[in-house]
Amino acid sequence: MKPVAFELFRPRSLEDALGLLGEYGDEAVLLAGGQSLVPMMNMRLVQPAVVVDLNEVVELAFVEAGADGVRVGAMTRHRAVELSPSARERCPVLRDALAHVGFRPIRERGTIGGSIAHADPTAELVAVATGLEALVRLRSVRGERTLPACEFLSGVLTNARQPDELVTEVVFPARSAGAVHAFTEFEASIGDFPLVTVLLLARVSGDGVSSVRLVVGGAGGMPHRLEACEELIATSGLHPQIAPAVGDLARSVVQPRDHDGMSASYRKALVGTLVERTMDDLLRKVGAST
Amino acid sequence: MTATGGQRFGRHEDARLLSGGGRYLADIIQADALSLRFARSDVGSARLRSVEPPEDLPPGTLVVTGRDPVLEGVEIRHTAFDGAPMPAWPLLPTDRVHYYYQPLAAVLAEDAYVAEDVANQVEVDYEPLPAYLDPHALPTPEQHLHEGFPANCLYRTELSSGDVAQARSAAAISVRGRYRTNRQSASPLETRGCLAVPDADGLVVWSSTQIPFVLRELLARTLGWDRERVTVRAPDLGGGFGVKAHGYPEELLVALLAVREQRPVRWVEDRLENLAASSHARDHAYDLTLHLDADGRFLGLESRVVYDGGAYPIWPQTPARELVQAMSVLPGPYVVEHYESRGVAIATNKCPSGAYRGVGRPSAVFAMERLVDDAAREIGLDPAELRRRNLVTEFPHDTGRGMVYDTGSYAEALERACAAVRYEDVRQEQQAARPSRNPVYRGVGLACFVEQTGHMTIWALPEAGLVKSVDAVRVAADADGTFTVSSGFASMGQGQETTLAQIVAETLGVAADRVRLLCGDTSRDPYALGSISSRTTVICGNTAVAAATKLVGRLRELAAAEFGEDPAGVTYEAGVVTGAPAAAGSRRLDSATLARRYGVTTQAGRRELAETETFAGAATGTYANACHAAVVDVDARTGKVTVDRYVVVEDCGRVINQVILDGQIQGGVAQGIGGALYEELVYEPSGQLRTGTLVDYHLPTAPEIPEVAIEHLFSPGPGPLQAKGAGEAGAIGPMAVIANAVADALAGRGGAAVCEVPLTPGKVWRLLHEPPVVALTLPWRPDMDGVAGGARS
């Protein structure tokens, strides 16, 4: 449980950090909150030659709400987002989902950039970024580019970052008028990694419902939208009776595999149940009585 | 009657332990120590061809393999308590690997990081073999582990009372159930570790051990030395729970290499090693048949017990100890005249199994209490009522099986637990439950048990090098007016600094903060077997009363001599001896003065007047009892079980310090709930451990553990203290009570029977939605019947 020897850099500015990445490229790993990287290094699952510690790069820790959304710096702690009034106001779903992450000591350390880059398929942030179609901004000495979250999150525990690039911020679109959301997850014990995450977003206007997004994590692969379910909700409207039908549909469309002693049939059932309960939750929020 | 009078003041040691003042093994500074790291097997079973150091060995590092001369003729050799042979356990194997993470080589380096680098580069050439993991299956020749132990059977035995055939033929109904508790890790917060420091005469071994004196015997025997040349010191322990009541290859290698290199050597286990290679526990299977008459009275019980002991026999208990314990305690607090039990301990390609809080009892109580509930359902009686009809109510109760229950409150504990958990309310809530899209099934469970505590578990095995000694306690008056109580057990967080100080302070009539405890040092403290078997308060506590009483007598005698009076005429109070009023006026001498005048100076430079007593009580211990009760809610669609409330009504005789007692119970219940709902060590078919990190091995955390409502009853225990042991009891009931509550919640839902723990959400969901056709088969192999008292053919 001791890492291999590595060279440690602690840049104090983004410019210095980018310079180091330009120099060391894929020899280097980036240390943000360390909640996943440090255990992986201690177990020697990751054996980097160079560690670039970003904790002194204070310019990457911010929450800024603008007209187009909420920009969250890569080194912003989960807890800071949770406590940010502007994040809560402009992007309440982000705050609600992050409250589920681990225990508070973990949220005091874990960062937005670290979580999105780690690309854990059951991470709350990954589900939210996918559902909200957040933007991930990357910088390198070569310049800057912005990717939609679903492009950045290229697969389980992998992302589209180039070796010299650094995630500088994640931009979450601001809540639009009439937007409602619900987030649910199932975990074997509180604070544990969730087995399934479900995020439901919609816009309600008058009697109609539009822009429905249903994202499921932990159903195999990365969190993904269940478009058939979205269509069912959009065409049926937010009626109390449809929750079980949406859940049943979700259960039938996901295709998880048996994994680590958990059967695919149980996971499918969990997805169906959680989707139904997330639907119920959303219906409660919009005032439809179940 | 209800137990009262227990002190409620907090623990002396907390200020130190909770503010970073504890001194654990890894805190001991030994600047010139070499770090030891083990290269370990990443397969479960293999033929070992070679273990070689890496080519570019950094200077100053050393790789020791099983073929190193230091290990010639050295292995852990012992027998079962009854002399039955056991296979030897090599410190580092030379020909076969028998479990995942078995140490294959030891690397010594100046730096712990370098040691780990080199350990990862040790070149191991092995031919993997099919792992033997299911003790109910007959092994193939390739799956055979130890020569002389056919079919991997390490030990088999039988025990009985009465004539079970009579019960069988007289029974109105016989109920058979098969149950299993799965493999668990005790997971102390502090892992194992040791530091061996050679000196001119011998060796000092600091070890995170519960059994300093017993470990000293193993070390001395391994080194081929007289025991006086080895000193074992146990510093503060961050939990023990039984896993540190064993001798392991790792600490023996540390000692051997420290002696050979004439350098201090330190090894601190990491969490992966702790999960994979510190003793596992609770891997038991039961096939039980209960014979009842038409009124639900138990006529007889038949049991077959299969214990998976892992790859090697744990030292010094061997799997025989755990197996016999489980077989003995099955009938529990019930009147069971006719009993017949057959049991086997089987070797498998898993980590050696050993003691874990409760030793045998948590699993046996789980099986028996599940059977009682299943029988109640079968005959249409409420589980509480069936228990009521069968609990022992008259004491002493001779089981006819070598156990005599001294005192107890079995029936009262049941009634109180039912009341406290609001048993009847749950029955009404169950009746009133309405259909729902998201059904939550509520269930209530009970578990009654009796626990032998404070017994003399002398492992008097010549082969194990153990001496037959009796625990001793020393109480000293110090020249500064304080008192010191010392004994050679270990302080592992169980509060003995407070409890023993309090016991001695009460006997001496002084404030508890004038008494301090020294323990865990074989060169300084009198012999004690160790902090195991819920025995320290019963055995060392009563002996401390005797030693303190003897010290008071000595103080009186010395003072009387100074006064020129008859000792019978002087008065002792609160550390001060006063002369007879008629003769003296103001003649008085305090303990400090007497210690200065008549004491001796210790190695540590203290001047003290000391008296030592040895334990004079019965070797059979005393029987504590409890009834646990819990209410659970089962989310039918996710399988998740939530514990709504948990009640313990327990009787451990006189309560000495209720804060400590309640803490022991609450902590034990938390560990038990872990085993009931979350924790399971799972091996892949290849023999590798799938649950090798705390991500996969789910320990419960604070939010999962309900506050336990605790009530105390009083049935006197032995000796002046009248206390019974209480360190393990909390962990004995939860697997049974939670499983019974889940079974109660699921009853009549068309699901399968609850046969095993942990009841993880996935397993509970499967019971309800994909019930297996046959819940558990647990085949009893033809070779499992045989000659009692040992397995060797």
Q: Please, could you describe this protein's structure?
A:
The complex is a heterodimer of chains A (290) and B (793). With 290 residues, chain A is of the alpha+beta class. Chain A has helices spanning 14-24, 37-42, 78-83, 85-90, 92-98, 104-109, 112-118, 124-132, 149-152, 227-236, 242-253, 264-285, and strands at 7-9, 28-31, 50-53, 63-66, 69-73, 135-140, 143-148, 166-173, 179-187, 194-205, 208-217, 224-225. In chain A, a hairpin with a 2-residue loop joins strand 4 and strand 5 (69-73). In chain A, helix 10 packs antiparallel against helix 11 and helix 11 (242-253) runs antiparallel to helix 12 (264-285). Chain A is globular and about 60 Å long. Chain A starts with 6 loop residues before the first strand and ends in a 5-residue tail after the last helix. The model of chain A has no long low-confidence stretch (mean pLDDT 95). With 793 residues, chain B is of the alpha+beta class. Chain B has 19 helices and 34 strands. In chain B, strands 3-7-1-15-12-13-14 form a seven-stranded mixed beta sheet, sandwiched between helices. Mean pLDDT of chain B is 94; it is low at 788-793.
